Amino acid sequence: MKRHLLSAGDLTRDDAELILTTAAELRELADRPIKKLPALRGRTVVNLFFEDSTRTRISFEAAAKRLSADVINFAAKGSSLSKGESLKDTALTLEAMGADAVVVRHGASGAPHLLANSGWVRSSVVNAGDGTHEHPTQALLDAFTMTRHLGSLDGRRIAVVGDVLHSRVARSNALLLHTLGAEVTLVAPPTLLPVGIDTWPVETSYDLDAVIPKADAVMMLRVQRERMQGGFFPTPREYSRRYGLDARRMATLQDHTIVMHPGPMVRGMEITADVADSSRSVIVEQVTNGVAVRMAVLYLLLGGNESD
Amino acid sequence: MNYLIRNVSILGGEPTDLLLQDGVISEGAADGAEEIDGTGLVALPGLVDLHTHLREPGREDAETVETGTRAAAMGGFTAVHAMANTEPVADTAGVVEQVWRLGREAGHCDVFPVGAVTVGLQGERLAELGAMADSAARVRVFSDDGKCVSDAVLMRRALEYVKAFDGVIAQHAQEPRLTEGAQMNEGELSGKLGLTGWPAVAEEAIIARDCLLAAHVGSRLHVCHVSTAGSVEIVRDAKRKGWDVTAEACPHHLILTDELAATYDPIYKVNPPLRTAADVEALRAGLADGTIDIVATDHAPHPHEDKDCEWAAAAFGMLGLETALSIVQATMVDPGLLDWNGVAERMSYAPARIGRVAEHGRPIEVGEPANVVLYDPAARRTIDPTDSASLSRNTPYRGMELPGRVVATFLRGKPTVLDGKLV
What we know:
The structure holds 2 protein chains of 2 kinds.
Chain A: H1 13-27, E1 44-49, H2 54-66, E2 70-75, H3 87-97, E3 101-106, H4 111-117, E4 124-130, H5 136-150, E5 157-161, H6 168-179, E6 183-187, E7 203-205, H7 208-211, E8 217-220, H8 225-228, H9 236-243, H10 247-250, E9 258-260, H11 273-276, H12 283-302
Parallel strand pairs in A: 1-2, 1-3, 3-4, 5-6, 5-8, 6-7, 8-9
Helix pairs in contact in A: 1-5, 1-12, 2-12, 5-6, 5-12
Chain B: E1 3-10, E2 15-21, E3 24-26, E4 34-37, E5 42-45, E6 47-52, H1 65-74, E7 77-82, H2 93-106, E8 110-113, H3 129-134, E9 141-142, H4 152-161, E10 168-171, E11 184-185, H5 188-193, E12 197-198, H6 200-217, E13 221-223, H7 229-240, E14 245-249, H8 251-255, H9 277-289, E15 294-295, H10 324-333, H11 340-354, E16 372-382, E17 401-411, E18 414-418, E19 421-422
Parallel strand pairs in B: 1-4, 1-5, 6-7, 7-8, 9-10, 10-13, 11-12, 13-14, 14-15
Antiparallel strand pairs in B: 1-2, 2-3, 5-16, 16-17, 17-18, 18-19
């Protein structure tokens, strides 16, 4: 594996499978009374969050702590985008404190890439979501969750539905699921698919009803409030009617098909409450798996590949 | 001091002697003239840049008229047009005269201020274009560059109004609504990188509209920094119809592509953005066949901190004055698309004509002003940003090996650069 995790596209199939296998072993811990390993004792992991994301931050925090790493949470108020402290100065500060890994969430696409390649820090950089670019650990936990329910992803059909244009989750999933052999279909209104998507290793569709009966997993993406005002679709109601997952649509799924969502959900928008709370929904399990996958990533980046 | 340049190739012709005497190109006895060995050198008319950002007044941390014109001289330029997006904006006779005077004081090259089209570049009402035209700076080129005059009525009025003093509107063609938050060329890569796209249509739609407007009111239009194949096609079509439209291409759009955005290094962030290889090809072809009249640098200095940050937070723009001629050699001359006559036309004669600058862009003939650059096309140099005469360091060519080197620049017979060094 590389020293950083910046993009799901950086992972070979072997890399991805190693992470998932490691996560499966670490996942067992979650069911034990003592959930802690000494693997990263004495190492420091910094959670550098330029955007509020309590879910992702506490998931990384739990992962690092269960591996006995020291954790520093750095909630940077304002980035250079809002004329606050520059990313460079923040990075130099962290470097001076001796971070071994920096987990970074940033509103600007490419910020983790910059951090890893600028020479400002020597630590490993883990992308915890950058702008509208990528969120590789989310894709890993999604793939992990799928494999637990579906086994190998080779030839499995995965539908990813919603605001693909602005979704870092969709980008990372498209890359990783393709690497793992799955057949991905991105479903969205044409306004929410990026230009050039025909070059991605995926199928696309504007018709949710046509896609989901064949899917083995259906992943619903959140529609952010600002997009609702952005003219990408006429009204939230129309969006829900055409691209929301409700009980009627859920009834067309195969028996084994699972329903996923990276959270946080907008209930009633892209997913109805009865679907989110149904027995097909693995949304809460995704959260549990997130900790195991992030443990695996930190373990492999910091301690598990000394030979590299 | 007078100069006799021995054995120099004027515009690529047979080696000859060239005498610069009392500020003009002369012939006959060269008593007391300093001799320069011109063997292997090409003599070109002093280059004229129609699109330079000198940043003064307001952003003297990025560039001043003094440092910017040094960079110009080092690049072989004897005249530059200083864009209006300063702080305060060059939208009054007072500001353009200040910039003009600073240029005269610096003395490295002539500075012709560009006047803003609209007050404060706000795109709402016309600035006092006539006052700027009548000022000591004699402004003939007007531009809101950095921003587009997107209001169609305002653009029409501007095109009409400047006819009274033979001015030209140089349009920064960018439909603002189609480019809100835009970061890079919209295409395959922008979708993958998660950077908001700047679609070609946002440039092409404005160029098409402006060509139609210029034809309708019988005005001349100049299109800044054409960057797409579609734009070249539209300008070609307008010229075929006989409309008075001219266009420029920037050196960086002739050689760099949007693939560089994948580095997320904002040294490659520029407006309009780097486009695809197909666009680069179309620009070269358009420059070769005359559809694109000139090369203009869009030299855009920025302090280090404005480029040493996240892509989205970084400033748009790159340096260009000191590397323009080398890029044109690499992309146009060496591949056989332009000869040195063509380079003189695109980088000196035509920009001077468009800007209505009588004393620059003149042929290298007896009696003409001695604005001359001596260029060594056989030299190779690796670009080191710290070598730059500019106050800023944001060159996208760092580490690249480029052909050619400016050996000397003469402004009215007086060297501003000699032996490749500032005088």
